[in-house]
Amino acid sequence: MAEVTYLDADELVINMGPQHPATHGVLRVKLKLDGERVMGSECIIGYLHRGIEKIAENRTYQQFAPYVDRMDYVAAVTNGMGYCEAVEKLLGAELPPRAQYTRMILAELQRIASHLLWLGTHALDLGAMTPVFYTFREREEILKIFENYCGARLTTHAFRIGGLQYDLYDGFEKDVLKFCDTFKDKLPEYEQLLTRNRIWLERTQDVGVLKAEDAIAYAVTGPVLRGSGVKWDVRKAQPYEAYDKVEFEVPVGRHDGWGDTYDRYLVRLEEMRQSVRIIRQSVERIAPGPIFGKVGKIIKPAAGTEVYHAIEAPKGELGYFVVSDGTNHPYRVRVRPPSFVNLQALDLMTRGHLVADVVAIIGTIDIVLGEVDR
Amino acid sequence: MRRRSLPPRLPGLLPAAKPPAAAGGPPKPAAPPKPAPKPVIKPDPWTSPLVEELQKRFPGAISEPVIFRNQPSVTVARESLVGVSEFFKSDPGGAYTFLTDETAVDYPKRPKRFEIIYQLYSFKHNHRLRMKVLTGDGEKVPSVVGIWPAANWLEREVFDMFGVVYEGHPNLKRILLPDEWVGHPLRKDTDILRQDEAWVEANLGIKSGQ
């Protein structure tokens, strides 16, 4: 029998993670390699599973609201907004305009904060040290606004079912507009560092190519779908809050029918600009008025009713499916997390690439493991 | 068992029982008029050309087309799930090419305890549709991975959390919990405090804290 040594091995299976700085949390990817090329990959997830959907069944509607902030913990505002809206839809409640615009301003600020965190860490993964210091500087300004508004920076629990807990503090509009003004000049700084950087182009162009039909087949949403050239955004397709009353564009990638890591980078940068546009319009339209709709303190939706409500979270379509049995506890809450569904396309995107590109592709999907595992 | 009740209050905090009213006291005021009964909120029947076409092509496979808060939903017989799904995806009147989500709801008292729920979306018509399939414990559900590849992980999650077995799934194994875990946490008869104590002790070396 011939002796098998490591020199004879032409296929190699290695583990990336669960403790790896580039996996953005506790993601374990099993990679099958042929030399440096990836032949296939398998994600092993669940390290952060906390049973959030089970917890929901054992809490009242209001008690469950803070838990959703712990899923995508870098975009807690949009998570809470999606849950509150789903329950409001189940109840058939209408929101006063002041509450709607406040929610939109905070949600778009959160989108910018989430994209900034993504940009900094994604660039860091690919070897660019500088952007992370710049992006965290701007993110800090957003977190300060959150802190002034509701007292928390990360897990904000900013909204309540039916409206807002707090009215805006004095000077909120001034702070937000000041951020918008300074941020306008900051975005070109990032672009100067990356957009035409030779190394950045080499590392991102033609890496992690995803065709539009594959993106649809794998139910990918958010900037990854738009990077593949599909012009679709929940805020435009099925508007919620007052998104139908503001003007903004939905950016798509450079190519028709497919997209790479560079496309998704460009899409996210443009989304930040569009978010600033939405914020400016919302600040203009915000007027004094009530901040709470007609929702009682005890929430008991009619028995046997169910509703699916989706919003455009920074990472893609975040959906809540809420089933009521007539009590003040939800019978079932299903969270449709964008990160979980988008991560499924990782295998498709990594095939044929080098090991070093896997880091770029994990970064470009923009996952948060708290949301993948729930 | 679900833990719904609050912890018992301390006896000192309970309001003292009222002394019985003396006989011959002041007459009680007349009862206020009863408020008008609240309108019953429930889903309405849903009619659409798509449903009529489905009933023509798959007689008896579709039941309960309802709409609630402008969200239509149909229940499909388990046997014709694959055929109806292909119809939904390919028919130009539907064109539901996007499987947004697949999940389950457990109703342990019903004869078929699981409702498998598919959230479909059509880019062409900008329309969402909820498709439901009823299944009992131990009955196999045909997999839709061949139609919508996104169902792969979603069906694994339903299998993991509810123990629903899919027929024809390429890689049906647990996704969030460890492979050797015993039990399905999102079933209604699983208590929130329950863990697989044997697994926890064998793998983490600790006695379960709960």
Which short descriptors sum up this protein?
heterodimer, A: 374 residues, alpha+beta, Cytochrome-c3 Hydrogenase, chain B, 3-stranded antiparallel sheet, globular, B: 210 residues, alpha/beta, Beta Polymerase, domain 2, 2 domains, 6-stranded mixed sheet, two-stranded parallel ribbon, 4 helices, flat
Describe the structure.
- The complex is a heterodimer of chains A (374) and B (210).
- Chain A has 374 residues and is an alpha+beta fold.
- Chain A has a single domain (51-373), classed as Orthogonal Bundle (Cytochrome-c3 Hydrogenase, chain B).
- Chain A has helices spanning 52-57, 61-68, 76-91, 97-125, 130-150, 172-194, 198-204, 212-217, 223-227, 234-237, 261-285, 338-343, 346-350, 355-365, 369-373; strands spanning 12-16, 28-34, 37-44, 159-160, 163-164, 210-211, 258-259, 306-313, 316-324, 330-336.
- In chain A, the strands form four sheets. A three-stranded antiparallel β-sheet of chain A has the order 1-2-3. In chain A, strands 8-9-10 form a three-stranded antiparallel β-sheet.
- Chain A is globular and about 75 Å long.
- The mean pLDDT of chain A is 87.
- Chain B has 210 residues and is of the alpha/beta class.
- Chain B has two domains: 45-176, Beta Polymerase, domain 2, CATH 3.30.460.80; 177-210, no CATH class.
- Chain B contains four helices and eight strands.
- In chain B, the strands form two sheets. A six-stranded mixed β-sheet of chain B has the order 1-2-3-6-5-4. Chain B has a two-stranded parallel sheet with strand order 7-8.
- Chain B is flat and about 65 Å long.
- Chain B starts with 43 loop residues before the first strand and ends in a 6-residue tail after the last helix.
- The mean pLDDT of chain B is 80.
- Classes of the chains: A alpha+beta (374), B alpha/beta (210).
Mean pLDDT of chain A: 87
Shape of chain A: globular
Average pLDDT of chain B works out at 80
Structural class given helices, strands, pairing of chain B? alpha/beta
CATH topology of chain A: Cytochrome-c3 Hydrogenase, chain B
Sheet with most strands: strand arrangement of chain B = 1-2-3-6-5-4
